[in-house]
Design brief:
Length: 126
């Protein structure tokens, strides 16, 4: 499997972990030094990111579709850029958010982990 294929597979595994609220799987994919910027501009470390996305509080994931993904790999760093459709429930309201997504991965001990991510702003049709 190429580096590009590994990154695409990891992005899909992350989407599955969000939808199934699998905190252990999500934590394993995310680098201990993770910094994630939400679509609302909130910057989170790994523990906060995992808790926010799996605890089932005001945000509940139902699924994520990754569209038009592009991956660039340079040495032990990879960047994924895509549009995503996030099926979520926020404060009891089901909705689908279409967002731009950027994830930066680093290779650590022969496996990839997400070091940084940013979701947003919303994609507007037309």
């Amino acid at each position: 499997m190429t580096d590009r294929d590994q990154i695409l597979a990891l992005a899909q595994q992350r989407a599955t972990a969000l939808a199934t609220r699998d905190a252990d799987a999500l934590r394993e994919m995310m680098h201990p030094q993770l910094r994630w910027t939400s679509s609302r501009g909130v910057v989170m470390d790994r523990d906060t990111y995992v808790a926010t996305n799996t605890a089932g509080g005001s945000l509940v994931w139902r699924g994520q579709r990754i569209n038009a993904a592009e991956v660039s790999v340079v040495g032990d760093t990879a960047v994924l850029v895509a549009d995503v459709s996030d099926d979520v429930t926020i404060d009891g309201v089901e909705q689908t958010l279409r967002l731009h997504l950027t994830q930066t991965f680093v290779r650590v001990a022969d496996r990839w982990q997400c070091l940084a991510g940013h979701a947003g702003p919303q994609v507007h049709p037309g």
